Amino acid sequence: MTSRTIRARDRPVFGVDVQSGDVRGDDPSYALVILDPVDDDDPDAPDAEGPLARITRDVVSLRKLRRLIDDREPLYVATDNAYELAPDKNALVGLLRSLPDGTRLVQVTGAERPEPLSRVASRHGIPYGKKPMAEAEAAARLAAANVGHEVTAFTDETTVKVSRGRSTGKGGWSQDRYTRRIHGNVRKRTRQVQSKLEEANLEFDREVTEKYGGYANAVFTVEARPEEIPVSNSRAGDVRVEVERERRDGIEYEPLVKRRDRVIVGIDPGTTTAAAVVGLDGTVHALYSSRTADTAEVTEWVIEQGRPIIVAADVEPMPETVEKFRRSFDAAGWRPTTDLPVDEKLHRTREASYGNDHERDALAAALYAYDAHADQFERITEKTPPRLDREEVIAGVVAGGASVEAVIEDLRADRDGDGETDGPAAEEDPTEPERTEEEETIRRLRDRVDRLESHAESLEADLAERDERIAELEAELEEAKREERIEARSRRIVSRLERETDRLERERDEARETVAELEGKVETLKELWRLDHSNFEDVAEGQGLVSVKVVEQFTLDAIDAADEAYGLVAGDVVYLRDASGAGRRTAERLAETDPRAVIRDGNLSEVADRVLFDHGIPVVPASAVPVREVDELAVAEEAALEAAVDDWESRAERRRRDERAERLDRIISEHRAGTRLETEE
Q1: What is the average pLDDT across 67-73?
Q2: pTM exceeds 0.85 for this model
Q3: What number of other Cβ atoms are within 10 A of residue 180's Cβ?
Q4: Is the peptide bond before 317 cis (omega within 30 degrees of 0)?
């Protein structure tokens, strides 16, 4: 890592690797390396030849690591695997949510399919060791050099919610004034937040819920990250402000910088133009296809992916469109000896995912071009000195048509010309014999300059044409954005009206249910009135019927509920709608009320039957005494009840005689058994 890279950081960079344990187990510890930026005039600054950073190494627990992140608010927390800090996706989302604003979790080894850390470090010239502390330092240095992918679970859209900071309460003399004050403060704070967002020139949508005296809450959907918003989480008095980023559907990996590596590009022209970008190691970087894109748009997309050294086609001869791309990038061309068959393209691209046949053909061309040059890349890599960029050497040999030795010499000359090396070579006399080789180098460089200037003129013409196209598209885009904003505003209004309609429909349905319930109660009251007057003469005369109190189940809760509803007193007739399942305690609870009789539906347990029998409480079946119910009230015929009670008394008397006889027989048997035992002794 260069000193320029370190100096660009105004906040520390953390490198983390597991020292011992596992995040899925207990008490994992982490090797932590902190790169703190140091100014040139700092007395503690290292030598100018080294990186301008103060390096701190430590072994910390997960809890201390998270506390340090909160305290120091580093720019990056770098690791070779994000799941070393969290056991699963939900925990990883929680970790990302807890990071301070502006702190990013970086996986330096790639996205979903990470590479070994040793390979990434070697590619970028970063020192690497197998010990956890060395790996943590390598991760920190890679992140500081903008190598890696940001691990994110949130979009760049943030929700700011302004709501009540306390409840409006249950009521009181000053309830209205208290509620009005809270809602008024929410409205005031909402306007302050809106004013700050407008001053920061942030795009946002606002939805408010109006209540008595002001707002119950307001929700701002802002097109920005939390650190870009001039509002933070707060709670003061009557108002609470909450800032939260919008969640993505899953975990995503975004590169810290746009890819600018040397690449191989496959082009499939036609009605639908497709392009595929493959790295010099054969890795598929990106795919693209469009029916409407012109050459400038495809060129711009390729430039965003990297710097092409080979442009490939899947047919022979190379199409003119592909040749135009090749010339625009000053790259080498590749084409097969004959058109590539479909089955071979399917086989070569079997491990990649693509959206259509055009992307497949472009990808097949790029991969076959890589296969054709793979051995050459390996030979060039073996000859390239460690301090030189391997990709630059490959580009000079493949695209420039020079030998490996000549390209290496050119790169060394460029480096020496920048003043990066000192020594005898810089002080050589131009009259020495080596002058001829230098003149040859100068001639070659001049040729390259001429070629680049010609290419630059061509690119400038294309650029002017593209700028015109960009201006047209920007005008169209602005118009489309305006229409989209109008449509979005209309959708929000429609959505709000639909929610309001749904609410009113629910209130209507609830009102109808309430009306139906009240109508039923009115009918019940009418029926009770008829029972209490001339239409029910037996009740009016006080004879022929007896009131019955209903207990839904033979349980303690049901008995207590009936007692609370209409009271259970001595002499009541109790109707058990479900008499099954009662125990001794429940039966004793019912017996305490001393009812005149118990009418049951279902069978009593033996324990409950014994308790009620011992207390002398008649238990008669509902089939013998029909019960007529009106709402919560019930009546039974006096004559039927008395007949059933008399029948129970008769059966109870027989049961008592049988039990006395059984006890007497048992006593006699026990006495005889005792006498026989004494005789035998």
Answers
A1: 91
A2: no
A3: 16
A4: yes
